[in-house]
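To assess whether ligand presence alters the predicted conformation, the chain was also submitted together with shikimate-3-phosphate. Input:
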Amino acid sequence: MAMTALPTEVGIEPAARLRGELALPGDKSISHRALMLALLAEGATRITGAGDGADVRSTAGIVEALGADVERVRRPDGNVEYVVRSHGAGSMRQPRGPLDCGNSGTSLRLFSGILAGQAMIVTLDGDGSLRSRPMARLIEPLRAMGADVDGGDGVRPPLRIAGRRPLDGIDWTTRVASAQVKSAILLAGLAAEGTTIVREPVATRDHTERMLRARGVAVRSDRGADGANIVELGGPATVRAVDQVVPGDPSAAAFWLVAAAIHPDAEITLRSVGVNPTRRAVIDLLRRMGASIEERGAPDDGVGEPIADLTVRASDLEAIELSPADTATAIDEIPILCLAATRARGTTTIHAAGELRHKESDRIAGIVDGLTALGATISADGDDIVIEGPTELHGATVDSLGDHRLALTFAIAGLVATGRTSVRGADSVAISYPTFFADLERIRA
Ligand code: S3P
């Protein structure tokens, strides 16, 4: 499963114009979940259009280590067709060593939920970035359900999980809006006796709920009086093997939406992008800024998620204010939205972005330092990010901190900056978007 090696530092020259059509990597969140649910289901699952980033590969490797047969075929568009054959949740194999999640928080957190309900002892580990990420938010509910979970230093990976079957259902309110924590609790809930309820302050991405329903598990979602999102499932529950078509990743689309919106001569069409209401915030926020984004809905076609073709054109942008809820629902797109804000007229304030300090890097520090080096006026004010625009960007050497979303953002900045922009740690794009630099060359041609 070798990846084409990308250079660690890439130089980007400004583009005279941006034109073309792209098919994007398969949605990362949905690809992870499709592989995991295929492991839990007895029988064969075909997954079409899965992303081939290193994170999804980590999940596929763990599914295999836990006893499923995983067949993969890479398609010419860079996505993968998987066929997973499993004996189901009751027949997982004790892995021989620690399970390597690499850089992937989604793999580590969602597998923790799955393994909490397995009667075996397993260690989940990852790279230096993953080992620095907070896990108390996950350890606490899984312990409350009856699993024995411990972090290396109490709260960080590696996580040692001594699972139990059945677990106890719980009624849990998450402190931070996190789809990963919600999903881990719901996946543990499949192996629990009784009802499991997750209450979250803002509705985070709901792929786990949709995909469980499609696989025969009754999952209810409701709005609380205070606007909280309440998700409930009854356990124990069996997941059926159901084929999955994976839509294009809206978080990958975001880079091109911003590229075209901030470039003076641009028109880019993105095919079959997932526009799930809990993922599409970046489209709506860019439109609020004045971006010209045309959206043509496409039939669901077995995806189980709304999809659309998007065409985005050069636009005049205005500053906006992102509320804490806006920030939470566009959490992965905040770095690229910061770039858009450097080209927008006025002061953009992104409120309550503190969670960004706990992603693959400290993304607040990374985006402020990188965009400042490129000539932007951007600062952090506590957990808020404030950007004054419009500013002309000029090429410089910027450090992605080995974080894919920062590397992708700085590469897009290089298309509009004057002179050459050098992105350090550019190989990290392979985490979510391994074909990015090839797409970039096509779009600037
Ligand atoms: C993800 C949830 C988000 C997001 C991550 C993918 C998921 O993390 O940042 O890239 O697939 O559930 P949190 O749930 O921790 O915010």
